[in-house]
Amino acid sequence: MPASRSIARRRLAAVATALPLLTVALTSCGYGSDSDTKDDKAAPAATGKALSADTVKIGYFPNLTHATALVGIQEGLFQKELGGTKVAPSTFNAGPSEIEALNAGSIDIGFIGPSPAINGYTQTGGKSLRIIGGSASGGVKLVVNPDKIKTLDDIKGKKIATPQLGNTQDVAFLNWVSEKGWKVDAQSGKGDVSVVRTDNKITPDAYKAGSIDGAWVPEPTASKLVAEGAKELLNESDLWPDKKFVITNIIVSQKFLGEHPDVVEAVLRASVKTNEWINANDAQAKASANEALKVLSGKALPPEVLDPAWESIEIINDPLAATLQAEADHAVKAGLLEKPDLAGIYDLRPLNKVLTAAGQPEVADAGLGVG
Questions:
Q1: Residues 276-286, buried b or exposed e (16+ Cβ, 10 A)?
Q2: Is the pLDDT of residue 146 over 90?
Q3: What is the reported pLDDT for 191?
Q4: Three-class SS of residue 61?
Q5: From 314's CA, which of 15, 67, 69, 286 has a CA 20 to 30 Å away?
Q6: Cis peptide before 220 (omega within 30 of 0)
Q7: How many CB atoms lie within 10 A of CB 167?
Q8: Which helix (H) or strand (E) holds 263?
Q9: CB atoms within 10 A of CB 91
Q10: Which residues contact 357 (CB under 8 A, 6 or more apart)?
């Protein structure tokens, strides 16, 4: 599949503001897993002259939706751009732990979903982080038991899993249910549809046991369910303008951005070059991402899961800022979030500088940028 991979899709119901209940519930584009971290020991050695910082600590998830980090770090593309500044990677399994690490200075830059980015920004009064770029769109699907559910209208009265209360897919599903005219209590998940909050690690087993009839989940969980006999009924990308919505952002601590703008720019340059390489070398990039997953998690994805999951994710530079605001609005509508003030959450000036130098179009902040 060439540079313009058939892909796509967006969405993350934005989420978390200052509601204490959601602080733990909101995960990045991660899959509702625990929030431990570990260092990647396989990073290439730094060579040449260091930039203004000797080391840049980068956090990301061992998920396909973080392919920019998976591939860019494994292939040495980040280290190449940073020269003598050492890349120190850490992996996370949940958004809150990555935000905590950013706030504590344990990482400087992170790849993360919109929900924890919104949460981290609003809970600190807009003082902790900035979103400085995009990384991925799409990769979220409604998959169902075809014996019980034939059409979208058949969802009424059924048990549908989402990863966590208030996480991006949970909010997306609640918003979709609301637009169907059905009623569900967001907190309990009870109503015209039963929303069953289930850790994605056990969702396939829950499906096999018959305790759920389907799931609104990110990749690769959706493709794992399909491999178990489920059927894709809806791709969330089809609900968004241009079939795009943000699933992974790049964030940076405001302190690090202020003190080391040259390092931030180098990381963004590496991200843009990695994304270009991924989109131009689809099969090789997919294999690289899967090898990185094997190194980090101990297990590669089988082809029947890897191939459809990879195809549904679009690797991009644009953070799709307008969709972040829409996702936040959906969370407010669902009653899971007070209206957040997202003004200043973006600083896309370094990215646009990199894009201009690369001869690529600039990206917009939807009026949510600094200045």
A1: bbbbeebeebb
A2: yes
A3: 97
A4: coil
A5: 15
A6: yes
A7: 32
A8: helix 261-280
A9: 24
A10: none
**pTM exceeds cut of 0.90:** no
- Burial (CB < 10 A; 0-12, 13-18, 19+), residue 309, is buried
Q: What is the pLDDT of residues 46-101, one digit of tens each?
A: 778 889 999 999 999 988 999 999 999 999 999 999 999 999 999 988 788 899 99
Residues 6+ apart with CB under 8 A from 147: none
What's the confidence (pLDDT) of residue 337?
79
**Residue 49 structure tokens:** 């002259």
Residue 13 pLDDT > 50: no
Which residues have C-beta within 8 Å of that of residue 181, sequence separation ≥ 6?
Answer: none
Give the DSSP per-residue string, 68-105: HHHHHHHTTHHHHHHTTSEEEEEEESSHHHHHHHHHHT
Per DSSP bridges, beta strands 140-144 and 214-218 are antiparallel
Pick from 36-45, 153-162, 191-200, 309-318: least confident: 36-45
Which strands form 246-253's sheet, in the order they lie side by side? 37-39, 86-92, 55-60, 109-112, 246-253, 129-138, 313-315
Res 16 pLDDT > 70? no
Beta strands in the chain (DSSP E): 37-39, 55-60, 86-92, 109-112, 129-138, 140-144, 159-162, 194-197, 214-218, 231-235, 246-253, 313-315
Structure tokens at 30: 């991660």
| Number of neighbours of residue 251 by Cβ within 10 angstroms | 29
Confidence of residue 366 (pLDDT cuts 50, 70, 90): very high
Buried b (16+ CB within 10 A) or exposed e, 104-142: eeebbbbbbbbbbbbbbbbbeebebbbbbbbbbbbbbbb
Residue 40 clears pLDDT 70, i.e. is over it: no
